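Methods — Computational structure assignment.
A single polypeptide chain was analysed. Its primary sequence is given first, followed by the predicted tertiary structure written as structure tokens.
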Amino acid sequence: MVNHRHAQEEKNGKGTGRGSASRASAAALLALALALGGCSSSSDDDGANSGNAAADNAGTNTSSSADSSAGEGSSSPSDSGKNGAVGDSSGSDEPASDGDSGDLAAEPERGGGGRASQYDDAKPGQLTAGEWNDALAWKPWLRLMDGEEARESQSFWSMFPERRLEVDVTAGGKPVADAEVTLTGRDGEIVWEARTNNKGVAYAYAGLYDEQDRQAEFGVAVEAGQRQKRYENVPVPRGEALKVELGEAVQPPKALDLLLLVDTTGSMEDELNYLKTELKDVVRRVDRDNGQQLDIRVSANFYRDHGDEYVVKPYPFTDDIDKTVGQLSEQKAGGGGDFPEAVDEALANAIGKHEWSGNARARLLFLVMDAPPHRDRKIVKRLQELTEDAAAEGIRIVPVASSGVDAHTEYLMRFMASATGGTYLFLTDHSGIGNDHMEPAVGEYEVKALNDLLVEVINRYAS
């Protein structure tokens, strides 16, 4: 695929289609930290201006507006032509070593740290980004999956995200957050598990990892506290959402878990230095703005690759700001070299070895990456299992695509986001910062400052 330079536009302009844009690799980490600082409680309408654009005239693989299904992430498409802009581990610093790095084919190498930062890393709001939520733009997503590029990526990762059931859960007419939704097969086996978001919406998938699976009807169980309902012979896909009313209204959970998972290979030094000086203020602002409404915990985690100083360096969730800042202060960027990184091991630690809240308003895993995982059969299988585990635990994977992301990596990130009820974020070229990178295969979207976009996303999930 040939990348070309996207024309420079105003920061709050529009972007369309598969092209190229410029971004600073994991400088997204910086803006995320700042976004946490700006996060505040908001009404449902606060996120309504940050949705997928109508895709009819976008000049991309997506060609029409999406379903009007409700859910988190960007708002449903409209005719405005704008898209949304931008667990405790052991606490040990020892590298994880439970992955298998044997590859199916030789993998390309990439350079070390890239070019020097061109921006003032003490000043937020310079990086620009877009957002696309495939869970909400469902009809364009299905059309995109019929394209040659998408079909290749489905086979590449053995993920086929086309058969989906939307479940809308209410109690007393109000959305129920964190209700458990289970899809079962003809023999009672669990096919998919999910948790509802703060709007009461969950997505259950059939045949996500098996293109040949043709079972048409399933059992659906919904549970929230002591309340349960079960349905039989539910078709998947279904022409409309399955609406479930559980009776008397329940109080929404107060916990908000934010986990940051960042590639810390060679080009990260400027970003980490910025975090060391800024994160303390950022987290205090989060606590100041939301501490009375939500119980917020943050976990910073870093990963590299085999042969580096460490593979995964995890830190547990904490509300202790000074402790988090101290951990960040110790980090240095380095390592890398070949293109793929130990993404699967980092996700395994983040999802399975942290103490995520048992009952939460939202659990968000921001995956800041600019390179794919190594690819062999074991790792592909592991990525499938991790995606399934995240969905079952209500952990929304929100990828932030940085420089170096290719088409296969983009689709993997979008597969994981849509399967877990997350949304897809990507840096753009509009800021003029960093190296060129491929623009995603999406419809028209609104370009925003990354930190503003991240604030919107967090508020949208936690409101």
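Note: The first strand starts at residue 14 and ends at 15.
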